[in-house]
Amino acid sequence: MSPTWRQLWQHHPEIDALFGPLKPSAAQLALIEDLSPLDVPAFGLEVSRVAGNRRPQLALLLLSGRAQRWRQLFAAYLRPDGCLAPGIALEAIQPLIATQPWLQPDTWLEWSATPRRSQGGGFMLFRRLAASPTLQELEPLCHALAQGLSPALQQRVGLPSPAWFAALARLPLGTLDQWGISVDPGSSGWRFLFSSDQPVAVLESCGLPEAVTRCLAGSPLHFSFDSRWMPTAACGVEVLPHYRRTSTVTAYPGEVPTGQAQWPTWPSQPVFWASNRYLRMVDGSVHLPSGTALGRSLGLRGGLSHQKLVIRAGEVIDHKLYVGLMVSQFREAEVLGSSGSARGLNSGTAQREALRALAAQRLAEAPASWFGFPLQPGASDLWIPLACLVLAASAKQAPDLASTYERMQATMAPVLEAAAPVGYATGCPPDLDSTLWLLRCRTALGYPRSASLEQWVASAWTAAGLPTYPSAAEIAAFIAQPIEGVSGWCSPHDCVTSHLAADPALPGSVRALQLVRQTLRSGRFQSYWWPLDGLALVLLPRGCLPASVVQRVAQQVLSPPCRAVMPADQAERLERFVRALLLLRHGALAEQQGALAACSALIQRPADFAPLLVLQVPEPQRVQADQQPSWIWNGRQQGALVSDPYGYFAASLLLHVLQG
């Protein structure tokens, strides 16, 4: 028997405290409580400032994409003719809720008014994007989807006009995050939700007053558009809490932050919420990592998810608040709920400590410096030791590492004090990735901020992210190639951009993280210098990647050209190690346990770190690493895959993910 939301509500009074200020109706509560979190793992209520004491709107997240299952769930609310709304049968919306390769499998159903038994009501459907189309791809995609709708729904929800799409394309929008339709008795339309890395420009295009634009500075924003109004004449601005700049809701470790510090300070105008009721919603939170119902372990979290400003002709005409509750992805109760599971947790703790000791021992074995990856200029004596100092900083006081760390810090002191851009090795032209490690190392070791270094990094920004080499002339001269022959090495690289996103203390890190997320969501992320994307993403803060992205990247394998030249056992070890690092950093608790076991099988002595990692060095004109037709195994120049005979970087990465 499946648990219901009613049972969870009865067992946890904090749920009632969370939704109390929104004043849901008895009909809304009855609809929610009869559903199971196994069918509807999330729901929310949205209140309007302008609507005053009117009941909130209800939204439900449904996992099923079958109209038949929806009929079972909402049988009591369907009209006598079986329609969800007047003239709209459930079968008519089947194409909108069915599996699509570019959409997440679940669907948000939002009622525009509380549905009544046997009467149905107007509604909106939203789908989250699995792969985001470009603005140029959006119009033909909508036309193709519309052709699969029933004639009644096609007539009710007409496609946006070419002029509407053209106006949308002129806005500096990022990726499409959600798509949907609105079906109301009066009028209906298509709905789109976008992110943007130029939010101020979007706000200015919509004519938002400067006072409101100032309030929104620093807040993560999404922009919604309805085909019933031209994009610059009407839009919605979804305002997210500050913690969402670096984390998703589901992946945030622990209880999500609440309170007014997470939100803008709104102008003193009647259209904005500013009452005790508002403060209760801002402060409200549910965090139940081990809630149980009918023997099933269900972690719950909830709170004020986002606020929304409704804009018409450059004016804010309404301010809405959305409070939601969801089944979280963290299942601590499943791990601690039995003696066998408890033994597994204790075993995991022992494995962590054993692996940490092996990593520290490998680092302590370095005779001179923490070198890595020998190329034509020699082994890296800048990039790798700086990276190791950063990655091992949290363990630098450990008895088995302290003296070695102090010695390596002294070795790199002249570089740290000079605060000048650095390259892969002594004598190499400066590159962005090595210089980011220098910036991070100075921060980790207590050096003051360097405005010149930060400006050098900032000056290399492009719309697509950071390149590795900002100066084509310098790297071309160093490797004796014409400038036009180094276009690949000087193009934006996702792995370098994700490195900037890895450290929230660095200027530009939030912008970089947003860009990395967009690239991952569109399926275009590709690490340039690593043969597996996980090696770039393992540096990112825990909680900043959706679980679907983590799962997809964890399944990545080496490309056929890489596999063709690598020894089979080394290729397999590389894939297993990178997958384990990624899941230790970003995986759920059960996945971390599996990753610990995988690492323990791979690494049983300090020397096992040495052959684990492989660097790829595409030919300098290759803009995309997958354009490299073939590789040289363990070469020292371009077009080569280079294994690391030292293992210090691998040990530092493992130490990093184990520490936090």
Question: Helices and strands in order, then pairings?
Answer:
Blueprint: H1 5-11, H2 13-19, H3 26-33, E1 42-48, E2 57-62, H4 67-73, E3 83-85, E4 88-89, H5 94-97, E5 107-111, E6 123-128, H6 135-147, H7 151-156, H8 162-169, E7 176-183, E8 188-194, H9 199-205, H10 210-215, E9 221-226, E10 234-239, H11 276-283, E11 285-288, E12 292-293, E13 296-297, E14 300-312, E15 315-327, H12 332-336, H13 339-364, H14 383-391, H15 402-418, H16 432-444, H17 451-458, H18 472-479, H19 494-501, H20 509-521, H21 534-537, H22 547-554, H23 560-565, H24 568-586, H25 589-602, E16 614-617, E17 632-633, E18 640-643, H26 648-659
Helix pairs in contact: 1-2, 6-8, 13-25, 13-26, 14-16, 14-26, 19-20, 22-24, 24-25, 24-26
List the uncertain runs. 329-346
Rg: 27 Å
N- to C-terminal distance = 38 Å
Number of strands: 18
What class would the helix/strand composition place it in? alpha+beta
Share in helix: 25-40%
> For the residues shown, what is the average pLDDT?
89
The oligomeric status of these chains comes to single chain
Largest beta sheet: strand ordering: 1-2-5-6-7-8-9-10-14-15
What best-fitting shape do the alpha-carbon axes yield? globular
Total helical elements: 26
Q: What about the largest sheet?
A: 10 strands, antiparallel, barrel
Percentage of β-strand residues: 15-25%
Features:
38% helix, three-stranded mixed β-sheet, alpha+beta, 660 residues, 18 strands, single chain
